[in-house]
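Service request form, structural biology core

Requester: graduate student, group of Dr. S.
Request type: structure prediction, single chain
Budget code: on file
Notes: please return the result as C-alpha cells.

Sequence provided:
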Amino acid sequence: MTISDYGSLLVDAGEYSGREDIAHNFPRFLGLAELKLNRGLRVADMEVTAAIPLADGDGTLPADFFEAREVRSGAGVSIRAVPLQQLTKRYGDRNGVQPAGYAIVGRRVKVRPVSDQDLTITYYARIPALTPSNPTNWLLEKAPDVYLFALVNEIAIWGKDVDGATAAQQLMMLAISGLRIEDERSRWGNAQTVVGGVTP
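Core staff response, request fulfilled:
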C-alpha cells in the first residue's frame, strides 16, 4: 500500500471501490468518513495539551476539542469532572484559589469555586481533516488502511452497494482494532497488572 497523501488516498479508494466515475464526490465522502472516525476513535495520537485562560471561572475550549482526558488547575492539581447542577449547587459563584471541579457546557469549561488561574487541559483532539492544502496527517501516516476502508465504505453506502459497504466496514474495523492494539501496547506495554482484593 503506497498511500502517502490526500491525492493517493483518493486514487486508491477509486480503484478499491471500482467507482472512479464518481471521483468528484470523493472529497465529500472523505468528510463523512472523518466525521465517523472522529466520533469513535480515541488513541494517544489524538491527545493534545493546551492552556485555557479563565475569566470568572469560565474558559473557551480549543476549537478541535472532543473529550477531556485530564484537567489541571493553575497549581498543577488535577481536578475532576462534576455534573453542572452539582457544581452549581455546591459552590454557586463562590471564589476560591483552587477549583475543585469542572463542567463542560457547550464549547466552554466552567470551574468552581470560581478561579482565574489558567487551566491545563489534556484532551482528545479532532483528527486534522485531509484536504489538498493539508494532504497528510498523523492517522494517514500511521494507519492508511483505516482511511482507505473508511472512504471505500462511504463510497459503497452512497452507491447503495450493501455487500461492498459491509466488506469495507469489516476491513475498516479490523484496521481500527489493529490501531487500538498498537496504541494499548505503546501506552501499557511495560506496565504490571495489579489485582485488587484480599490475597488468599
